[in-house]
Design a protein that fits this description.
mainly alpha; 2 helices; 39% helix; 41 residues
């Protein structure tokens, strides 16, 4: 695949950093929820 074609394909996606959904992850639930809500957009 040509590099321009790869760039066009990559532009269709975005990277969303999400916190772990594990209860062992010590981030407050409210902060986790705020990050996960991004997926609904």
């Amino acid at each position: 695949m040509h590099s321009d074609a790869l760039k066009n394909r990559a532009d269709q996606y975005r990277i969303v950093l999400l916190p772990s959904s594990s209860p062992a992850h010590t981030m407050a639930y409210v902060k986790k929820l705020a990050a996960w809500v991004v997926l609904k957009c």
